Amino acid sequence: MLKVxxxxxxxxxxxxxxxxxxxxxxxxxxTVLIWLLLFFLGVEVGENPQVINGIRDLGLxxxxxxxxGIAGTILFSWALWRWAGxxxxxxxxx
Length: 94
Fold this sequence. Notes:
mainly alpha
């Protein structure tokens, strides 16, 4: 963990020192490196038998969390809408 923090701070220092230069290759390099990291993360997950054997359960749990998150968002949005704009006017509904 200390290595990660040290590398991050060294990158901040280098970025600070080179802030006046136009580094056009950096955004492209970052994109390629993120793709590589995601690929190797997928490789590592794919070779883990516990993850592969439990993929059905993980998928169902992810589906359940997504659906309940969406339902909760809709419910609380509706409640906030009613609370904020639900003041009745004379002679009818709002």
